[in-house]
Write a structure and sequence with these properties.
Blueprint lengths: L1 H23 L4 E5 L9 H9 L5 E4 L4 H6 L6 E6 L4 H6 L1 H11 L8 E9 L7 H20 L7 E7 L3 E3 L7 E2 L4 H14 L3 E4 L2 H6 L7 H5 L7 E2 L6 E2 L2 H15 L7 E6 L14 H17 L2 E2 L2 E2 L5 E3 L34 H5 L7 E6 L5 H12 L20 H15 L13 E4 L13 E2 L1
Parallel strand pairs: 1-2, 1-14, 2-3, 3-4, 4-5, 5-8, 8-11, 11-14
Antiparallel strand pairs: 6-7, 9-10, 12-13, 15-16, 15-17
Helix pairs in contact: 5-6, 6-7, 13-14
Bound molecules: 2-acetamido-2-deoxy-beta-D-glucopyranose.
2-acetamido-2-deoxy-beta-D-glucopyranose binds next to helix 7.
């Protein structure tokens, strides 16, 4: 009887845990909805399209009211933007900021789930010193305007940076900001830190590849494909893909300034599916590999080596091609969907295709808790693989060998141990470094066995 009671208490806990967890599942996958185009489908059709996918957040560059309205009651989180041109008035006039909130937020909130306002785009690297100096005051005024509308904390304020704010990014542990931008960044980061808003940045492995196409294995490293990895000589961490390396370089730069608590958001990342004949990198195959593998990587929740066990909020670039953008052909070829709402190529975003991977009800998996050290995870890995569990899938050539990180391998092994040892709560303990999750960590051909308790 006592055992039965214990069991139902755990069940009740898991039901709660699941309800909470499912609401949060995959909410780290967002998409950029740019509008420099003359052929886009109506916002209502776009809202339907988004609801048929596992995309749960959308970033607008402006604050088009038709789009914001079309997304009402969809549960989709919305990032809206104040244009660079609005910065001077926002900075100098609190009333302008209040009016901005009154016209762009108040009429739509909370039916339309506005979660973040980005002030300006890549301002710090724009060379416009006057605009750069006005960025923080503009953000502060918008924050004050939100506070007076009792929306402070509910809707965050930030800005978006290009990777050019980094002077050093390789190896990731040496990631540092440009000394000339340090003062301004210090102010902005102080704002992020105090208001709990994220540091938003645009890492593009595509551009890293483009600038150095002849480096050995660079394409595979940038596309999350099998490669021999790059060891960070300071930390001895072996990086298996460029995305993690870039995000961890940003993490190192933030940490080196003392802002360890400020979260990173990937505001844009993507890969063009076509380009001009003289462009290196764009192709349907590469775009599909990058975006598909990135999505699988995010869903696996292995995180990056410096931020294991959780996926950074990532907004894919982009929802549609923007046919009016200037520049080489690749600039107009980042779209995941065509104007007729069909996929440009399949990256596993449609709900139908991801449902195959989603669990039937009540299935649970054993996963590492966030923040557990590599040393502990390695100990778990050694323990499991030394106790007759088949660790073949995480050995070279196995379906779960990639990503080749201790976190990913330990996650696979710990779950397999739990599933094959009776699925008792104590089989998913590992000295309190593990927890049960209702999110299926499987990705690509790597299947994590699941089971109900
Ligand atoms: C970040 O905010 C926390 C809490 O408000 C504060 O204690 C800390 O000093 C801040 N960090 C920096 C580097 O300003």
């Amino acid at each position: 009887m006592a055992i039965f009671l214990y069991h139902s208490a755990i069940l009740a806990f898991l039901v709660l845990f699941q309800a909470f967890n499912l609401a949060d599942s995959q909410s780290f996958i967002g998409v950029n909805y740019g509008q420099v185009a003359d052929n886009l489908p109506p916002p209502s059709a776009t809202a339907k399209l988004l609801q048929s996918t596992s995309i749960e957040k959308v970033r607008l560059y402006g604050s088009d009211p038709t789009i914001i309205k079309a997304l009402a009651n969809t549960g989709i989180g919305i990032v809206i933007g104040a244009a660079n041109g609005d910065i001077p008035a926002l900075a100098s006039d609190l009333n302008f900021a209040k009016n901005w909130i009154n016209s762009n937020v108040i009429p739509f909130h909370p039916a339309s789930k506005i979660i973040l306002i980005t002030v300006g785009n890549e301002v710090i690297t724009s060379n416009d010193q006057s605009l750069i100096n006005q960025l923080l005051p503009a953000m502060q005024n918008l924050q004050n305007a939100l506070n007076s509308a009792s929306l402070g904390g509910k809707i965050k304020v930030s800005t978006v940076h290009s990777m050019a704010v980094l002077r050093e990014s390789e190896p990731p542990s040496s990631g540092r900001f440009h000394p000339s931008m340090m003062n301004v960044l210090k102010g902005l980061l102080g704002f992020n830190n105090a208001s709990g808003s994220p540091f938003a940045i645009n890492p593009y492995p595509y551009f890293a590849y483009k600038s150095d196409p002849n480096r050995p294995e660079n394409l595979a490293f940038c596309l999350f494909q099998p490669n021999s990895g790059r060891v960070d000589s300071k930390t001895k961490i072996k990086y298996m893909n460029m995305f993690d390396a870039q995000v961890d370089a940003v993490r190192s730069a933030l940490d080196s300034m003392g802002f360890k608590e400020v979260e990173i958001v990937v505001a844009e990342t993507g890969w063009p599916y076509k380009g001009d004949s003289n462009e290196v990198g764009p192709s349907l195959e590469n775009a599909k590999a990058y975006n598909g593998n990135l999505i699988a990587h995010l869903r696996s929740k292995v995180g990056t080596p410096l931020m294991p066990g959780k996926s950074v909020d990532t907004y894919l670039f982009a929802l549609y091609d923007e046919d009016l953008k200037p520049g080489p052909t690749s600039e107009r070829a980042f779209g995941l969907f065509k104007p007729d709402l069909t996929m440009t190529y399949d990256v596993g975003l449609s709900k139908q295709s991801s449902q195959v991977k989603l669990s039937p009800k009540n299935e649970v998996w054993c996963v590492p808790k966030p923040g557990v050290s590599d040393v502990q995870l390695q100990a778990n890995l050694d323990y499991v693989c030394g106790h007759g569990i088949d660790c073949g899938p995480i050995q070279p050539g196995g379906a779960c060998f990639e990503p080749n990180t201790i976190t990913a391998h330990a996650a696979y092994a710990m779950n397999l141990y739990y599933q094959t040892s009776g699925r008792n709560p104590w089989n998913c303990d590992f000295s309190q470094t593990a927890m049960l999750s209702s999110n299926n960590p499987s990705y690509n051909n790597c299947v994590y066995p699941g089971g109900s308790i």
